[in-house]
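Meet the record:
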Amino acid sequence: MLAFIVIIVLSYLIGSIPSSVWVGKLTKGVDIREHGSGNAGATNTFRVLGWKAGTVVSLIDIAKGFVAAFYISQIGFALGEMPEVLWGVWELDTTMRIVAGVAAVIGHMYPLYAGFKGGKGVITAAGMLYGIEPISISLALSVFLIILFTSRYVSLASIIATLSYPIFLISLRYFFGFAEIDGSLMVLSGAISLFIVIKHRANIKRLIDGNENRIKSFAPAKGKLNEEQSA
């Protein structure tokens, strides 16, 4: 039980690292949450601060989810305090990777170090899923890139890619014979996808109303840091 609590707390604290806020303050002396869309995520960083800052933020956010799911989740097993199967059904290894990853995503969305005002969790969730099962998330990433480059809507690409992920998991397990994909991953990935979509509800409303902004350039928004943009 102690190991379980330690895993969750450490994962949350790593997820809480407010990369976009810190990068914005270090590079431009600005709080990214006060510019553009006001979202403390990589997309807003790309638009407000440019591709260099955006890339750094993206890599950090991916690493947060990956480190939590791939490394921190294993603390209990290293201490010999974890059984192999949960409730006689789910593999505990996969379940703990998900638990640790979700804690990191929650930390990203509600960061302790930045007044609990964070990003939407898409990139951190992607990092988490790469630490669990890379094939499905790679397919979902392909969906993201296709939608992004055809529509120029980051929010639409994020929403569709997020919803496609559990579909890819189910397809790989039941139609392509990937028996190693645990049931816990399919169930909890659906819950994660729903949570991320809910975090995009303002974007969904703007998409329906036809006033969601498209990506035009990844150059810094010179002289336009106060301009409203979508995340």
User: Anything to note?
Assistant: The chain has one domain: 2-209. The first helix runs from residue 2 to 15. Residues 226-231 have pLDDT under 50 and may be disordered.
